C-alpha cells in the first residue's frame, strides 16, 4: 500500500461569484496554506462554509480529495495545471482513493482524528470554480468525488503529515460505491445496502431510505 500523506491543506472564506447569469456566495475557492492549521469540530481555522444546508456542520466539517485524481482531470479538462484546492477540498491527500476508502473509516491525520461520513455530491459551484460548464454529471459519474470527514478529535494538520488508518469495517460501502448509487438509484440492491448502512449519519441514511421506498413502490 502506498504511503498515505497530506499534500496540501487548503482554506477559503466566502466570496461573491457570478456564474451562468447567477450571483451567489461561495467558499469553494480554497488556497493552500503553509504551516500547521488547527482542526475544529466544524471546520479548519481560516476556513468557512456559506451554504450550511448542504455544506459544513459536524458531518461535513472537512472535505478531502485525492491528489492522485488530479492527473485524470487535467487530461479530461485539457488543463496544463490544476492548483491544489481546485475541487474545493480542505485536505489534498495522496495514497488513498474512492475505491478503497469506506464509509465509517477512522483516520489519524496529523494529530487530529477524523471519520469518513459520505461522498461529495457536486453542484454548480464546482462548475463555477473550474469555469467548466456541464461538469456536474461527469464529475459524479467518474466516482472521483472525494469525501467528507467528521472531526472526532481536534488537533492540527500540515502538508507532509502522514495519514494513518485506525479503524475500518470491511463490510461497509466504499466512497465509489456510494457515489454510484447517488448517480443511479436504479440498483435496488445497492440502494437498500446504502439505506441500511449504519456508518452513515442518520440524515444521510434517511435520504437513501426515502429513495428506496419510492423505488420499491414502483416495483
TrEMBL record:
Membrane-spanning intervals of the chain: none
Annotated MOSC domain residues: 31-166
GO molecular function: catalytic activity; molybdenum ion binding; pyridoxal phosphate binding
Stored Gene3D superfamilies: PK beta-barrel domain-like
InterPro entries: Benzoxazolinone_Detox_Enz, MoCF_Sase_C, Pyrv_Knase-like_insert_dom_sf
Coiled coil segments of this chain: none
Name of the molecule in the record: MOSC domain containing protein
Lineage: Bacteria, Bacillati, Chloroflexota, Ktedonobacteria, Ktedonobacterales
